[in-house]
Amino acid sequence: MQLKNIFTEGAITANFIADSIAKHATKTEIGGHNIFLGQVRADQIEDKLVVAIDYTSHVEMALEKMHEIREAIFAKYPLTCMHIHHSLGIVKAGEICLFVFTSSKHRKAAIDACTECVERIKAELPIWGKEIFEGEGYQWKENN
């Protein structure tokens, strides 16, 4: 079985997001979309400023787990489609690192499925972020 690749090298661009939305105009059975965009924050940690996050993953394991999550969400909600994209590599503060896009006949399913998908990605996928500080230094990010 070919697992769907969710990973994008670097930031997820506004053009990519806009194109993804535009492609759904022909799917006239859809009544609601929900989109989550995760953006890298310029957090101040003690006296250091986060300027980027360098994302790494155990890709094969992450794709297998994402397939399980995707199947469970499709079984639970009446979705038309669901798209997930997560960055790998360096993403600068202010750039998008996670794009989850769900669509359904009615808005509630799209909203609930998107929320559950984001929460499960954060809790279950083997993806790690190294917060890069201005100047020099880094620390491993903790999800919360």
CATH topology: Aldehyde Oxidoreductase, domain 3
User: Low-confidence parts, pLDDT < 50 over ≥5 residues?
Assistant: none
The residue fraction in helices comes out at 25-40%
| Quantity of strands, as a count | 8
Counting DSSP H or I runs of 4 or more residues, the number of helices is 3
Net shape: globular
Proportion of beta-strand residues: 35-45%
Could you walk me through the main structural features you see in this protein, from its secondary elements to its overall organization?
- There is one protein chain.
- The chain has a single domain, classed as Alpha-Beta Complex (Aldehyde Oxidoreductase, domain 3), CATH 3.90.1170.40.
- It is 31% helix and 39% strand.
- The chain is globular and about 50 Å long.
- The chain has helices spanning 14-22, 59-76, 107-124; strands at residues 7-9, 32-39, 44-45, 48-57, 79-92, 96-104, 127-133, 138-140.
- Strands 1, 2, 3, 4, 5, 6, 7 and 8 form an 8-stranded mixed β-sheet that branches.
- It contains 3 helices and 8 strands; from the N terminus they run βαβββαββαββ.
- Helix 2 packs antiparallel against helix 3 (107-124).
- With 144 residues, the chain is of the alpha+beta class.
Summarize the structure.
The chain has 144 residues and is an alpha+beta fold. The chain is 31% helix and 39% strand.
Helix-strand layout with pairing:
Elements (H helix, E strand, L loop, with lengths): L6 E3 L4 H9 L9 E8 L4 E2 L2 E10 L1 H18 L2 E14 L3 E9 L2 H18 L2 E7 L4 E3 L4
Parallel strand pairs: 1-5
Antiparallel strand pairs: 2-6, 3-4, 4-5, 4-7, 5-6, 7-8
Helix pairs in contact: 2-3
